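Standup notes
- DV: blocked on the single-chain target, sequence here:
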Amino acid sequence: QVQLVESGGGLVQTGGSLRLSCAASGHTDMLLAMGWFRRTPGKEREFVAGINWRGDRTDYVDSVKDRFTISRANARNTVNLQMNNLKPEDTAVYYCVHANSFSKLKAPTSWGQGTQVTVAS
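- DV (later): unblocked, structure below
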């Protein structure tokens, strides 16, 4: 089993930046892919970004391309999401996820508790 803990959420003005981090523990040998989802009240959870084990494959939802960057730390059990030029529509609870393959990342195995990101207009 893998435990995921997010950090770095908060309140920011439109156009500002935030950096989310997710630390994994437990069976980290299963961390072949990691990523982020988000949920806005009244909406389904939305895939935001994902990255494979080696860090050489990434995927993003169209609405965040060229603004968000996902990366993995050297230890491989930490994933970061750098969010730039934030917009009010980015306001959501952001969840860290993992899966045992990059192709399965949009149906994750485990979820973190989530961290709130609020972008003020």
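- Follow-up: The mean pLDDT is 92.
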